[in-house]
Amino acid sequence: DADVTQTPRNRITKTGKRIMLECSQTKGHDRMYWYRQDPGLGLRLIYYSFDVKDINKGEISDGYSVSRQAQAKFSLSLESAIPNQTALYFCATSGSSQTSTDTQYFGPGTRLTVL
Amino acid sequence: GDSVTQMEGPVTLSEEAFLTINCTYTATGYPSLFWYVQYPGEGLQLLLKATKADDKGSNKGFEATYRKETTSFHLEKGSVQVSDSAVYFCALSDRGNQGGKLIFGQGTELSVKP
Fold first, then answer.
1. Distance CA B59, CA A9 (A)
2. Helices marked H in B62-101 — which ranges?
3. Cα separation of B19 and B24, whole Å?
4. I need a labelling partner for B90 at 20 to 30 A (CA). Which of A83, B39, B70, B75 fits?
């Protein structure tokens, strides 16, 4: 079984709809991240969480919110989806050491299309 | 702020050709450097990493050396295979209190033809 899972894998929605993307991990990691990938822009950090009570904005948090329901679960919400939020979304996890060398483990991604 | 710049793709090579994908970075501290690979339809996975100057990361025939003097971390492979076709991302991780956050380059698509 995959260590980091994301649901749904694909979603098509309409402008103005509320959307939730879910991420679960079985690696026992404290740190979780949400990124979006756009062609030619690489991955950009939306939100990150270093433990259940710690939530931080990333580079592009406007229009998004998150919830860390448990150590293993980190959800991303789009309160009112707009077409420029069409992208590939990735969840990732890493260990809780204080160094910068921890590998991040990525889920398979959710392809979101906002019409 | 910190940033990563990669050579633009797509890069198309014949099987057994030599590969170089350039990556340069800007950072205020002493970051760790990473190469991640994304195969079609999959998430990213770590290919290799280096944590200090002159370190060489290597995996699956790929290598990259952390060059502080040129702020570079170029990815190389001596003989590519069709199965290496993927998107490659260079990334850095800061070492401050928020250690662990990754900053990615824009990605370089590699296509290897038989």
1. 29
2. none
3. 16
4. A83
User: In this complex, which of B31, B41, B101 lies closest to A45 when CB atoms are compared?
Assistant: B101
- With CA atoms as reference, report the closest residue to A27 among A114, A111, A94: A94
Q: Is B44:B64 a contact under the CB 8 Å cutoff? A: no
d(CA B43, CA B73): 22
CB-based contact, B87 to chain A, within 8 Å? no
Say if residue A14 is exposed, middle or buried (CB neighbours under 10 Å; 0-12, 13-18, 19+): exposed
Tokens found for residue A39: 């062609």
Q: What is the CA radius of gyration of chain B?
A: 14
B82: three-class secondary structure by DSSP: helix
Beta pairing partners, B78:
none
The 10s digit of each residue's pLDDT in A46-91 is 999 988 999 999 989 999 999 999 999 999 999 999 999 999 999 9
Are A45 and A60 in contact by the 8 Å Cβ rule? The answer is: yes
Residue of A nearest to B106 (CA): A42
- DSSP code, position B72: B
Q: Are A44 and A57 in contact (CB under 8 A)?
A: no
